[in-house]
Amino acid sequence: MNHQHARRVFLKQVGLLTAALALTKLPAIGRPLLVPPLPTHNIPFDKNLDQLWVKSLYERGMPTRYLKSRNELKYLGMPVSGLHSGTVYVGGDGRLWLWQIYNASMEGQHEGITGHTTLWNDGSSERKIRPRDGAAYVNPPLANNFRVLDQGFALQVRLGNKTMLKELNEDSWDEILFEPTYPTATITFRSEDIPVSVQMKVYSPFIPLDPDNSALPATILRITVINHGTHSMDASITGWMENGANKLSAASGKGFRRNTLISSPECTSIFMDFDATDTTLKTMPDAGSVCLTLHGKANGANTAFNPWPVTVQGCNTFIGSVANMPAPEKLVGSIQAAATILPGASWQTDYSITWHFNHPHPKLVKMVKDAADGYWYGKRFTTALQVSEYIQDKLGYLTHTTELWAKTWNDSTLPHWFLERTFINIGTLATANTYRFASGRFWSWEGIGACGGTCTHVWQYAHSMARVFPTLERDMRQRVDLGTGFIPDTGAILFRGENETRPAIDGQAGTILRFYREHQMSPDNAFLQQNWQGIKKAVLFMLAQDKNKDGMTDTPMENTLDAVWEGEIAWIVGLCIAAAAAAEQLAIEMNDKTFAKICRDYVANGRRNMEQYLFNGEYFIHRPDAVQGRKQLGSYNTCHIDQVYGQSWAFQVGLPRILDKEKTVSALQALWKYNFTTDVGPYIKTHTGGRPYALSGEGGMIMNTNPHNEANPYGESVTWQLGYFHECMSGFEHQVAAHMMAEGMTDESLVLTRAIHDRHHGRKRNPFNEIECSDHYARAMASYGTFISACGFTCHGPQASIGFAPRIQQEQFKAAFTAPEGWGTYSQSLTTNGQQHRLELAFGKLTLQTLHVNMIRFVIPKRITVTVNGTNKTLKYRLNGDQLVIDFLQAFTLGVADKLHVEVIC
């Protein structure tokens, strides 16, 4: 979230400050209570859950399917652009929409996927909600209203003397089925009046551990036509695309749109650019090029196709090597492929759409100097045609490996809905929320166009990118956190890089934990060795914020709730303890024994005092400053969603416990009791001022509640940030779900995650867009942490160690994993005389020295054997609690398709 003035102005405009003072009946400072008390806590303790429904959450189930017949397609918009290359959505009927590729997203100018405010009645009043504050949640955009560029496909079938023509759109087919398995979407078209079905698979190349080939400004559309009849048929697919060059800036008399045909036996492209007579148009944010390509033999092409209504006349010949159209006019190119399909057979053809708009918004260039030289894809390619040629050259690798990852991720025993919700938010990287500049630097907003600077206290919640594209996170730690955003004299990390002048205490601590995670997701010690001195300074700065040396940081400093809180705050104290624990492990690996002891002492001191002074017998609290008291805004004795966040982080990186298990679980149970509700409606009706990220009738976990109905629960000087306490923000909820899963509260974890999933069902809004401060909010990538916890996954690349301890379905478990240099599948199962564990690598390589697995049933093993592709490995093993630790006498490396098998005889 952002501290900036613009947000305060908005919140005051919607009456948050006055509503907080008037509607919640807070007394004036220094005056007796003359008004009715605060709204009472009205979240039911008994969640009244159907236990059969809870049980069903564990079941494998079916992949989510959205159907035309159920009117579920209109809001669907799955990102299918490359990482950091703008936002392109595929809609429910396979057509592309939004096209936020023109560098228009900018703080205060175009925040979010729409530019419009909407009205929302929160139960007490009607308010205006801006895009950065949830407009797309309250009033989701319709795909048909955001078709910035014309694009589509048509199928023609000749069967005997009969010719049938259908566009691939919602109006032309009886049934359309949309199946999302991010990064791929599969759309199936069926009708009674035609003996074929069409399947379209849409995605941008997405290959974990390969950030360059996952960051192409491109969408691939793989179309398969299936002949269900008893006779052969002639079929053709015609794909068309509008010239999108200078789409926003071109005006009459300023130049011509130009389509150029480039054809070969293997590939046909229509390259689309703008021939500007006004040179100022050449550097506009929307100046660039687009390219439509058929990757295969073409049956025809047309540089000036008129598809309204669509006909095939002129498509099956090559018409016009170059076409020009005056600036304001629409110019469309088309390419046709054709084949004869035997009965029961199918025919596949591949198209791609690529783009190249390498002129960042002028205001962004002023914000971030790296933006001046354009983007990473702009450095690699000079035009959209070059991108297309690259795809043509590597089409086999790009399509096969993307689809291999989708298969690997979804070939699991975990519930389909769970896999979808925990992974889906990594699509944020493929939207206009993130950039990668020509220098290689990663940079992002918090949500699209809002709150810039890759904010540390937001991104430290997000686990997806670090696990799937770890090189990007390592570069950010080194280039920004210890580079442009680092103050070497003090060790402070500015929480928005060069876009800020202050550190944030939670961002500082979280970034130290991220250094540890990035080290673990490295193949060797180089990252740690290169950055240790800077990391050490950052840790010392964090430790210095504990003024009274009791292990509980107490220096007032900015935090993610956009306020400077006084006193000792459980979630910040615990996060700093976790960061110190991570720093201790790093110091041990660096053989810095003195510093390791400093960190170890801090952890021990902080844990002891946090458990003694910040635990109220049920949950962890915020102890007021001894002098200030409760004058300033804070959480105090209320039940705060992040109160044991430090322990949650510790699980993500395999640290020893930093807080007592009994007290921690008690705190999580309190969050479940006091903050989670299956219907937020009654709460937000009485506790006004929050933004609409969950609406009446929807379930969620409220940020902060006052279960004891105390007066002045949030302090005497109530400020605009109070509104956050009454909201459901999915990134925080995912953090709690991940922690609950790790602590064995699996029912609660799944119910909470499912509540988020159900809030984002396609019949209500776009399932692929979790909103906080604007659309596709970065913190929502905390969802991947719940997957990590479900797998009990640990990894330490430099130590060649990997581990799994599934929290659910232990007796028969299978899931994907990503390691520093490879990814694949892990599985485990019970056998009649013990248990077995398997690793199979699908991509890259995996070096192993130590393997940790859990004893599914805790008995002493009689014999353990490990084979790789049938060959025995020499090992020794030990039990560590319920963990079986297998140490190989010599490290070895698994390659693609290698299989490791562990047999445990009990």
From TrEMBL:
GO BP of this protein: carbohydrate metabolic process
Classification via InterPro entries: 6-hairpin_glycosidase_sf (IPR008928), 6hp_glycosidase-like_sf (IPR012341), GH116_catalytic (IPR006775), GH116_N (IPR024462), Non-lysos_glucosylceramidase (IPR052566)
SUPFAM superfamilies: Six-hairpin glycosidases (SSF48208)
Domain Glycosyl-hydrolase family 116 N-terminal as annotated: residue spans: 77-387
Pfam families: DUF608, Glyco_hydr_116N
Domain Glycosyl-hydrolase family 116 catalytic region stretches: 506-782
GO molecular function: beta-glucosidase activity
Xref: PANTHER family: BILE ACID BETA-GLUCOSIDASE-RELATED, NON-LYSOSOMAL GLUCOSYLCERAMIDASE
Annotated protein name in UniProt: Uncharacterized protein (DUF608 family)
Species, as recorded: Chitinophaga dinghuensis
